[in-house]
Each structure stands twice: as structure tokens, then as C-alpha cells.
Amino acid sequence: MLKAMLGEAWQAMGANRLRSGLTMLGMVIGVGSVVLMLAIGQGAQYSVAQTISTMGSNLYIVIAGSTSAGGLRSGSGGGPTLTIGDAEAITELDGVANVAPVQQGTQQLVHGPNNWSATVVGTTPPYLDARAWTLQSGYPFGDSDVRAATRVALIGQTAADNLFPNDDPLGKTVRIRQNPFVIIGVLARKGQNLDGRDQDDTLIIPLTTAQRKVFGNPFPGSVRMIMVQATSAEAMPAVEASMVALLRQRHRLREGQDNDFYLRNLAAAADSAAETTRVMSLLLGAIASVSLLVGGIGIMNIMLVSVTERTREIGIRMAIGARQRDILAQFLFEALMISVAGCLIGLLMGIGGALLTNALTDMVIVISGTSVLVAFAVAAGIGIFFGYYPAHRAAALDPIEALRHQ
Amino acid sequence: MPEAVIRTVGLGKSYLTAAGSFPALKGVDLCITGGEFVAIMGPSGSGKSTFMNLLGCLDTPSSGDYFLVGRNVAHLARDELAALRNRCIGFVFQGFNLLPRMSLEDNVALPLVYSGCRRDERRQRARSELARVGLADYAGARPNQISGGQQQRVAIARALVNSPQLILADEPTGNLDSHTSAEIMGLFADLNRQGISIVLVTHEADIAACAARQVRFRDGLLVSDEPTRSETPC
Questions:
Q1: Residues near A341 by Cβ (< 8 Å), separated by ≥ 6?
Q2: Minimal C-alpha gap between B229 and chain A (Å)
Q3: ipTM strictly over 0.90?
Q4: Alpha-carbon gap: A360 to the closest alpha carbon of chain B (Å)
Q5: Structure-model confidence comparison of residues B228 and B124, the more confident one
Q6: Distance between CA atoms of A215 and A213, rounded to whole angstroms?
Q7: How far is A324 from chain B (nearest CA, A)?
Q8: B86 and A321 in contact by Cβ < 8 A?
Q9: Chain B partners of A313 at a C-beta cutoff of 8 Å?
Q10: Is 0.90 topped by the overall pTM?
């Protein structure tokens, strides 16, 4: 019975190929665009998630407050308000995983005939853990290097490529302001951060060495910023509160007095970037869904025409014993067949379009099984939903009237 | 005494029109026993079409009762009537009413689809009915590839495929020339001799003469019911 009905639906579709094809085209375009748009949206989400994971998770950056001298304000990080002691005190707080004081700036790096300007980061060993940064070769510096202010350095991929175009940088010497630094490790590649800045264009050296030999420091013991990593996303609000309380207490700030430091939450920035792309992909999907809806209406339209055209056929079928549900099933099957066939072609075209976009542009495209399944289920649902009304009309026809219909 | 295939008691049908209720059939009593060949005659508007629709379970009466093979079917639901049309009645129409997209075999097998037969059984029974009407060689042809007389034979094969007790034929020769009409009437007479009851609507006297009994309608009433006088049946 089911097989006979499928066969008849197939015949009915074949009887008017152009019309069936055009009706199907609505579904093809709808499903194709939904699949493609979801793939683009999910690709964007994926690449933002990738970028965020390179920054390190659950991070706070505490930045020293500004100074003001003769009406000239220094901007954030200019004041001597944060100290190594602050950093050590923060380490003791609950929920804190890693703390790394940071002094950084742009410096000219020189190796033999090559020179290159890059970000020089003076810090302590926990910095690499906080930023989830691994070494490609060599080994990191330790606490003893920080205590002794040794001249060792870890080099990022971009800086290494420019200073050592044909060489392995490991064991070589880089000079900053005439101070030679031995490269003991090469950092793994990270790519761009959310601002689009190249994170690999960098050189990491011990904090003490940076303050004494590279940047100079008018206020011994102070740092410009402290990177603080919480143990988990859930621990972040508690860490923030206790950190602010601790620093206010250490800096002897009275009630009502402004903080003499700034707190920046990198996780919040990452969340908002992720949220933006999520909204974007939802929006793309929603726009594409409209074309799916239009495709469904097209099916309903054609099925209504088909029921009118085939009124006599319906009458004949009723006369020889078709029950109402047989007629209903027949027209539902036809609508379903058009929408499912259109959906299959649309899936192929959507996936093809996604692969083509992937090949022709540097956009990241992610086709998930879920989105394919959802598109398929929605198309089948549309076939039933928009096919039901015409099928119901066919089934409700009066057999005598239908037989008389010319 | 054979069982009554059709028995109507005070069968009436009124239609609602803008001018009020219009009685198309005003209480008809008729009994047709198994194996009878009855012609129904009457001018247009006499109520014979309404009567045929009721006999065919395509419509339900406004009043009275209709016993089909002993069962009162006057107040059955649509799907129950469909099942009766499928199993107890075979229809033959003036315009043949074959489905143009299907092969003759599929046309003949169509009632079996609705009675839930399996595919190979449908095929086998459709072929044997096509053979019975002399069209075994045309199983794969389309209706538009054969003549009108042949199409009517296919329609008869379709009416026979579910082995009904009754065949209702509504002007079956109306679209055919006299020679082909005679052939079709010969086929009906054959079937009747095999024990199938046949009720035939016609307004041609020589066609009606093939039946053993002639019933006349006028103005919604049965006005005469008598055996055919002619000694030369088809």
C-alpha cells in the first residue's frame, strides 16, 4: 500500500516535470541557503572561539593608575601604584591560579645585520601558563633567572622569522639597547588576538632584566600591570571582589576614594565577541529560513492547483473505494516527496557552496551534522504542514461532485 | 428464492436549494435479487441519477432505508460507504473514467490498492480480469492508446476485479457507436449469466432491451416495473 502510494506520488511528480521542478526549486534554494548560512555562522563562531582560546582563559589584567605631573596626565599604567608585592599578595588569594607581573613595550631587536621592532614582555614564569602558551623548542626561564636578572629570552614566531630568516634562533643572541640576550626557547604560534594584533611578534624576558636593562624604572619595585588568572570561570567574580578589596587595603585607599588601578576582564571581552558571532549566525539562519518558508508556500500553491486539476481523478478514486484518508495520504505524499527531494538537492548545493566558499576565500566554514539534520527535518515538516491543507481539501471533496467535474 | 442484492424501502432524497428543499426522489420501493439484469430508464430530471448515486453508496438518503446484500447502509459514515463501494459494487461510467497516466493493468488493479492487496496479487488479478474482457495483450498500454470500446472493457475489468455482487453501469454505451455498444452489452449479458447482478441506466430502448427487467422513473417516482417483452436478448 505504502509502496503503491509512493509509486503514484512519483508518477504524479513525473507527469508535470517542469512544474514539479520549479516547485522543488523553492525548497532547493531555501535549504541550500540555510545550510550555507549556518555553515558560515558556525565557521565565524569557531574562529572566534579559536582566537579566544589563544588569549588564555579566565584572565584579569590589573593596570597601574595614572600619574599627573604639572597638569600632564600619564594615562593608565603610568603611575607607580602597583608593586611586585601586590602581585605576590594576589597569589595568596583563593581561586587564583597564576599571577604574572608584566612590564612591556616596543623595542628594536638586533641580530647581526637584521633588526626588527617587536613587543618585549618582561614577566615571571607563570605568564606562560596564564596565557596557555607552549614552547615549540628549548625551555622556559625560571624564578632563579628572575632573581638574578639573567639575559635570557623566549622568542615568538613572527619575530624569529624576521630576525632569523634561515636559522634556528635557539642559542643565538639578540641585542636590545646593546644588551645581549640568549634565546633559550621558541614559542609556539598563536596567531592574532581579538584586536587583530599579531601575538607572535614578541620577545619574553625576565621581569627584573626588563626593568633594569631595557625599560629602566624610575620607581623600583613597581610594575605597570599584573596578569591574574582565576582557576575557573565560576571563580572569577569572587576573585575580582577579593582582589579589589586586597589592593584597596594595600594601597590604603579610604572609603569613597577612587581605585588607583584599573581592572580589565578579558573573559568578558571574549564573551561579548562570542555573543556577537552567535547573534550573527542566528540572524543569517533566520534570513535563510524565510526563503524556506517561501518554498513551502510554493508547494502549497502548486498542490492546491493540482487538487483542482485532478478533481475528477479524485472522484474516480473515491468511487472505486478510496477512503478519505487514502486521498489525504496520496496528496500528502506528493507534497512530502517534492519537499524532501528539494531538500536533498538543496543540501548538496548548500554543502557544495560551503566547500566552494572555503576554497575561494579564507573564511572558516563549519558544516555540522546537526544543521544538516535540522534543515532536513524542517523541510519534511514544511512538506507536511503546507501539504496538509490541499490534501485535506482533496479528501473532503464530495464524490458525486468530483465525478461530475470536467 | 435468491437473496435480495438491493432492497430500497421508501427511499427519498431532497436537495437544499436557494428556493427551499427540492425532492429529487420521493420514496422508491425496489427489490433486485441476485443475478438479475435490470435497466433503469426515464427522462432527465426523473430522479434516476439520484437513485443510482444512492444505490452506488456515493450518497446517503434523506429518508427511507437501503439494504445492500441484506445490510442497511442508509446511515453509514463516508469511510464505511467507501469500503462498500470497494468490495460490493463495481462502477462502469459513460465516460470510462480511466486514469490517463496509468497503464491499463494499474487502472484495473487500483481498487485492490484500496482494499489492501499485496502487489503480486494485485498484478495477477488485474491480468486475469483483463483477459476476461479480452484485452490480455494490452496490460502495459495507456488508456489513450486504445479505442473507446476497449477503454470501456478495461473499465468493466476494473469493476470486476474485487469480485462484486453488483455492477452499476451509468449509460455505459453513451459514448460508443452501435456496433461497439452491442459488443459491450454482450459482455454485460455474459457477466450476468455468470451470476453477477447488473443495474444499467440508459435512455435507449434497444440497450434497455438487453435487460430482463425494465424500471421507469418519472418526477422522482418509480412509475413502471416490468419484464422485457422482446424475445431476443443480446
A1: A13, A24, A27
A2: 34
A3: yes
A4: 47
A5: B124
A6: 6
A7: 7
A8: yes
A9: 99
A10: no
A301 min Cα distance to partner chain B (Å): 22
Residues 165-224, chain B, touching A (beta carbon < 8 A) = none
Q: Pairing mode, if any, of strands A179-187 and A152-155?
A: parallel
Q: How far apart are CA A175 and CA A295, in angstroms?
A: 67
Cα-Cα-Cα-Cα torsion A38, A44, A48, A53, nearest 10 degrees, comes to 60
Question: Residue A1: pLDDT band by 50, 70, 90 thresholds?
Answer: low
- The mean predicted confidence, pLDDT, of chain A is 87
B98, closest residue in chain A (CA to CA): A316
Whether the per-residue pLDDT at A230 is higher than 60: the answer is: yes
What are the Cα distances from residue A256, in Å, to A246, A248, A259?
16, 11, 9
Amino acid at A261: F
Tell me the chain B residues in contact with residue A2 when contact means C-beta distances shorter than 8 Å: none
Residue pairs spanning A and B at CB distance below 8 A: 59
pLDDT at residue A220 is higher than 80? no
For B141, the 3-state DSSP assignment is coil
pLDDT at A213 over 80: yes
- Which tens digit of pLDDT belongs to each residue from A277-323? 888 888 888 888 888 888 899 999 999 999 999 999 999 999 999 99
Task: For B86, name the nearest residue in chain A, comparing CA atoms only.
Answer: A321
Among A312, A313, A320, select the one facing B114 at the smallest CB separation: A320
Distance from C-alpha of A69 to C-alpha of A71, rounded to nearest angstrom:
5
Q: DSSP state, A192?
A: B
d(CA B215, CA A135) in angstroms, rounded, equals: 106
Instruction: List pLDDT tens digits, range B105-157.
Output: 999 999 999 998 898 999 999 999 999 999 999 999 999 999 999 999 999 99
The predicted pLDDT at position A82 comes to: 87
Of all residues in chain A, the one with the smallest CA distance to B100 is A313
